[in-house]
């Protein structure tokens, strides 16, 4: 990803902090024509009080009044309607600015700098504009709506909407990571979900574990989209210890979102098949957010699904029972399973068959995010 810091039109956009009522222009027009407010009232059939309130900005110019002004003053009704609309918009913006000024501290809850670095949002020098940019990113009208929305999502996923007392986790960071996944997934056209098609696609994807990212990412996204699953890869954010998530965007479209939290192929692929297990085995109303320490029956089921799909238990047991675990045997067994050898090494380490510092670690592929121009 490339950094998007620097000058751009958004950095110094001018937004007036005042609103000029259409009545000011109306008064200038009357003076130019040598007409009094009483004259205008008589010609439009409106009370003088109404004309005076319009000039003072206390009453709006309605479409009906705009037509009357066009006939009497010779100035198009569209002109007066546009003045009124712009005035009301400016008033609304002023009120929003006043409201947001009291909520600037919210910016500290969100990893703004990292999101700018990743190109998820634009950078603005003005904090109000930066706050508005974040609301646009989240697709919500206010901070109150943001909190209600993400409070529900993060509580549903099992990560309470507060800083964890155990893990260095910030809900703002998690919400930003999840939201970027939503945005990216919306751009992926998927066929209606089919569990049978998804199961078939997993067999194909299993063979992709041996490929490099330049190959497997494009193919797995396409294959899963044909089964109704949007697969996205989103860089990890600080204080967002999440390796993956499985959730439903619509009843016919699911999302599997992955980070490179652990940066090796065994973790990446286990995370993917774990999330696939949730999609196949569990309900559409839940959000399965994978983070340190998550436990439970559904997690155990997804773990078992991933473990057995990648390395069937019976074959794994026979391999272990032989008692010969070296470079050659590991490579050959992985070839029979049609998976990357790093996945087998990770399984052996997880089961304490070999150490985490084992010389077999050379079979693992290490991934990293590369900046794109």
UniProtKB/TrEMBL annotation:
The taxonomy runs: Bacteria, Bacillati, Bacillota, Clostridia, Eubacteriales
Query: What name does this protein carry?
Result: Plasmid maintenance system antidote protein, XRE family
Family matches, as SUPFAM superfamilies = lambda repressor-like DNA-binding domains
Q: Which Pfam families match?
A: HTH_3, Peptidase_M78
Protein species of origin: Desulfofarcimen acetoxidans (strain ATCC 49208 / DSM 771 / KCTC 5769 / VKM B-1644 / 5575) (Desulfotomaculum acetoxidans)
Q: Where is the HTH cro/C1-type domain?
A: 26-80
Question: Which molecular function GO terms apply here?
Answer: DNA binding
Supply the SMART domains for this chain: HTH_XRE
* Similarity comment text for this entry: Belongs to the short-chain fatty acyl-CoA assimilation regulator (ScfR) family.
């Amino acid at each position: 990803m490339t950094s998007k810091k620097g000058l751009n039109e958004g950095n110094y956009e001018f937004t007036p902090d005042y609103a000029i009522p259409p009545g000011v222009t109306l008064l200038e027009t009357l003076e130019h024509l040598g007409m009094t407010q009483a004259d205008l009232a008589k010609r439009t059939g409106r009370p003088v009080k109404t004309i005076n309130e319009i000039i003072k900005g206390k009453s709006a110019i309605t479409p009906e009044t705009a037509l009357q002004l066009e006939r009497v003053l010779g100035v198009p009704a569209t002109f007066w309607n546009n003045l009124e609309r712009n005035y009301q918009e400016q008033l609304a913006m002023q009120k929003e600015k006043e409201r947001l000024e009291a909520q600037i501290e919210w910016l500290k809850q969100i990893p703004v700098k990292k999101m700018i670095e990743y190109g998820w949002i634009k950078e603005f020098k003005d904090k109000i504009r930066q706050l508005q940019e974040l609301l646009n990113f989240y697709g919500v009208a206010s901070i109150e709506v943001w909190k209600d929305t993400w409070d529900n999502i993060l509580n549903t996923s099992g990560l309470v909407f507060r800083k964890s007392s155990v893990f260095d986790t910030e809900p703002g960071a998690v919400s930003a990571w999840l939201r970027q996944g939503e945005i990216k997934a919306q751009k992926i056209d998927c066929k209606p979900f089919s569990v049978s098609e998804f199961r078939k696609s997993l067999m194909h994807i299993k063979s992709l574990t041996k490929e490099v990212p330049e190959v497997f990412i494009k193919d797995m996204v396409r294959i899963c989209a044909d089964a109704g699953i949007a697969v996205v890869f989103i860089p990890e954010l600080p204080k967002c210890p999440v390796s993956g998530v499985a959730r439903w965007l619509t009843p016919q479209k699911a999302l599997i979102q992955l980070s490179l939290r652990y940066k090796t192929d065994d973790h990446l692929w286990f995370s993917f098949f774990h999330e696939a297990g949730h999609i196949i085995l569990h309900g559409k109303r839940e959000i399965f957010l994978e983070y340190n320490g998550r436990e439970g029956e559904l997690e155990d089921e997804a773990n078992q699904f991933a473990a057995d799909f990648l390395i069937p238990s019976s074959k794994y047991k026979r391999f272990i029972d032989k008692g010969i675990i070296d470079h050659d045997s590991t490579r050959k067994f992985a070839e029979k399973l049609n998976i990357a050898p790093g996945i087998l090494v990770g399984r052996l380490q997880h089961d304490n068959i070999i150490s985490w510092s084992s010389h077999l670690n050379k079979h693992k592929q290490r991934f990293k995010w590369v900046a794109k121009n």
